[in-house]
C-alpha cells in the first residue's frame, strides 16, 4: 500500500510540470505572434514594404513599356519602305523570234527561234525538203511574258530585248536555242558510238517532226542508259575520241529542261533566224555540223550540215557539235 501511494504522488507531480510547460509555451507563442503582427502592421512593416515593392514594380514596368514603344516607333521611322513592285506589262501576240529568253529574269538562257502564238503552218523549210518543218499554233492557255531587259546583246545574234515569264501559269510559248555550243565552241560528241548498225527500231524510237525533240531525247537517254542490254544499242561511250552525247548532258541539263532538238526544230532554228551557209560562221559564230535528236536509219542520225546549208545525216560513231534547245 505504501508503495502504491508513492507512485501516485510521483505521477501527479509529473503532470503538474507538464501543465506548467504547456502554459509557458502558449505564452511564448502569443508573445511571438504579437511581435510578428506588430512588425507586419507598423508603418515600415512587412505589409507596407510589400506595397512599396508592388508600386515600384509597376512604376518600372511602365517605364519599360514606354521605352519599348519609343524603340518600336524609332524602328518604324527609320526603316526604309520598299517601293511597291510595278505591275509587269504582258507582251502581245506579235512574233518575238530573235528575242532573248530569260527564265528567271536575270540569266539570259538562249535565243528564241519559234513562237507558238504565231506558228508557221505553211510548210516552211530550211534549204531543201529535208529541212521542212511546221510550227503548230497555240492560241489558248499560253504563259504571259514581259520584257525584263530592254536590250541585251551577243556577238552572234546582236542586240534585242529579253523576255521572261510573268509566272508559271500556262504552257510554254517559245522554243529557244542555247547561245553557245555544248561544252564550248567546236566541242564534238559521238551521237552514240556503239549504236552504229544496231538501231533496228530507228523508225519508231525518234521522230523528225518539230516539237518532238524533248521526247526523242528522253527515249535516247533511256536507250543509252540500257547500254548492252536488249533495250539498249550497245556499250556506253564505246569510242576512244569523244563521249556519247546522251550520257554527257543527261545529269544536269535535262532536269533543267534542255534537250537535243529534232531535225524539224534544228531546221526551224536556222530558217527562222536567217542562218545559211554564207553567214553561219562569221555572223552567227556557229560550227560546221550540229547533231539533231532524230535517227535517219540503222547507222545514221540527222544533222545540220552548215557548210552547204541543209539538213543531212552522218554515222552515229562520228564526232559532231551540239546545241541544246528548251521551251519556256
Question: Can you give keywords for this protein?
Answer:
3 domains; alpha+beta; 11 strands; 6 helices; about 325 residues; 6-stranded mixed beta sheet; 3-stranded antiparallel beta sheet; disordered N terminus
In brief, what are we looking at here?
The chain has 328 residues and is α+β, with helices and mostly antiparallel strands. 32% of the residues lie in helices and 17% in strands. The radius of gyration is 45 Å and the shape is elongated.
Q: What count of helical segments does DSSP give?
A: 6
Rg over CA atoms, rounded to whole Å, is 45 Å
Averaged pLDDT, please? 87
- The total beta strand count reads 11
Name the assembly state.
single chain
Compute the number of structural domains.
Answer: 3
User: Helix and strand string, N-terminal first?
Assistant: HHEEEEEEHHHHEEEEE
What percentage of the residues does DSSP assign to strands (E)?
15-25%
Question: Can you describe this structure?
Answer:
- With 328 residues, this protein is of the alpha+beta class.
- It has three domains: 2-78; 100-174, no CATH class; 189-327, no CATH class.
- It contains six helices and eleven strands.
- It has helices at 2-41, 46-78, 202-205, 213-226, 245-248, 263-272; strands at 100-101, 110-115, 145-154, 158-165, 174-178, 189-190, 289-295, 300-305, 310-315, 319-320, 325-327.
- It has a six-stranded mixed beta sheet. Strands 7-8-9 form a three-stranded antiparallel beta sheet.
- A hairpin with an 8-residue loop joins β1 and β2.
